[in-house]
């Protein structure tokens, strides 16, 4: 049934909201919510988070003068209502697809997206940057950061508030507190926020106390201040945010349009310094199946609007993530020293499996990758065996901790790096492109990649057994290739690869989950009379130099293949061969990696096609180094 959206149909840009009455804005929010549900039912995406900010999106655009005022959504996964209001409604059904709208905010997409995002907790820093720009004469108005209760647990948000509170410049932070991250939120700060929102009359009470206090003579005022501290439960009588230099307003009902509009208007009129508005919202608001789901429909596949049933595709092979979760739980059952760390993604990383069995040995640190890595280093130093399970893209945030706290001290922290390679709909921001490059250059690191899901089980066992220093293994999003699974993981010899197919013309040396593509390419080439060896390197560090030497000696060309950026495995092989004289006798070496550009969202297969890493691309690379292209077969 087509949606009835008479008000929304009149909105071509946020300027249209500014002529609407408060009643119309409330009705517009209802229409917008229906539109978001309808869009995401066709595209999939971050539904629950977007439904939670429908009223906020309308109110902010109605009160502030976007795009001159800069509205910055933290993470950006909740930006669908904002996109609909900012002249992108007609393209919404292309969301997260190849050539379509991004699922996050993106500067190149719209002037209403002043700052791109997808990794969390950057919004206050960016907003503060715009604020400085405004004060230094740049053509920019107020800056408004909207940050969730999950995102505000990350250290970066406090670094930003520390600076903003000190600078004292006019800046708006809206805390969108739905008491939910991807999983239920964790940590003392979460408890603190819950305490604040549980005291709805808190602001009024404090306001009264403050007014009363100001009217008292000096000595009495101190007593009143102490009394206020008792009432509010905070030592200085203010909230944490006030102690940091912000004016705190709230908690307010983030779905009550009159309350939202009145609060934003008052803040906009009166603010002279940084203001934090605490809006309490409901993740999945207004859509029953989302509100009642344990994950609040954080990220969904396409779904049926009436029933809420998601169209999850049938799998032919187990997903890498669950293979990891299962294998680690098995290892943990055998070894009581194994502990695990996730940064707010227990189900995304599969650590929920181990947590179900060994809850006291799995630590969800919240969105705090830096802390997670150093925390694991501390546990390793104490004699425990920590596994840090973090997506490749988010591990980037913990890099100095990896270098300084783990590698330099040679601590045996095990890094389980999920979402390695191109991930699909989340696009370039979530691609696991760089981990091999940034880990394999660290002295003493063991760096592995799983060629298939059985190999992942072996790598978990290898990492569990290895106490010699830091060790990592990477594996992609999605299903494995359907290989026979081992009963139990075998401990691999460190630095030893394997040959899967013997040939004589060209060797394909694969690092990671492009192994099936290499085998398929070898098969295609065999049918064309080209004899190809396929080897699985398993290790980017230490390299299997014996295997590489043998491939180099017995083939006219070696082609490395990996699901990662340049500077990774291929670069390690190239450096080794160049420095050991392996290239001195005419060996042709090619490195197939992701190209030197960010790959836009599409299906993973389409992204790999864009990257030039399909089976046909691999076969083509082999043809290009064959004798008819001028490469003589070496003795
Ligand atoms: C640095 C980083 N780590 C992890 C994530 C994955 N992630 C995306 S959204 C999210 C939860 C955010 O919760 P919150 O800020 O409360 O937003 P909500 O979805 O509840 O509106 C997480 C953990 C990320 N985007 N960036
Ligand atoms: C917004 C965000 O960063 C996460 O929700 C991410 O989209 C999850 O990705 P997966 O679906 O691969 O777990
Ligand atoms: Mg939240």
TrEMBL record:
EC number in record: 2.2.1.7
Biological process GO annotation list?
isopentenyl diphosphate biosynthetic process, methylerythritol 4-phosphate pathway; terpenoid biosynthetic process; thiamine biosynthetic process
Q: Coiled coil where? A: none
Q: Taxonomically, which superkingdom?
A: Bacteria
Question: What does the entry list as the binding residues for thiamine diphosphate?
Answer: 77, 118-120, 150-151, 178, 287, 369
Q: How is the cofactor bound?
A: Binds 1 thiamine pyrophosphate per subunit.
What keywords were assigned to this record? Answer: Isoprene biosynthesis, Magnesium, Metal-binding, Thiamine biosynthesis, Thiamine pyrophosphate, Transferase
Residue numbers binding Mg(2+): 149, 178
Give yes or no: UniProt keyword Metal-binding.
yes
Q: Which Pfam families match?
A: DXP_synthase_N, Transket_pyr, Transketolase_C
**Which cofactors is this protein said to need?**
thiamine diphosphate; Mg(2+)
Q: Does the keyword Ion transport apply?
A: no
What pathway or pathways are given for this protein in its record?
Metabolic intermediate biosynthesis; 1-deoxy-D-xylulose 5-phosphate biosynthesis; 1-deoxy-D-xylulose 5-phosphate from D-glyceraldehyde 3-phosphate and pyruvate: step 1/1
Sequence ranges assigned to domain Transketolase-like pyrimidine-binding in this UniProt record: 318-483
HAMAP family found in the cross-reference section: DXP_synth
Give the protein family: Belongs to the transketolase family. DXPS subfamily.
Q: How does it assemble?
A: Homodimer.
What's its job? Catalyzes the acyloin condensation reaction between C atoms 2 and 3 of pyruvate and glyceraldehyde 3-phosphate to yield 1-deoxy-D-xylulose-5-phosphate (DXP).
Name used for this protein in its record: 1-deoxy-D-xylulose-5-phosphate synthase
Instruction: Point out the gene that encodes the protein.
Output: dxs1
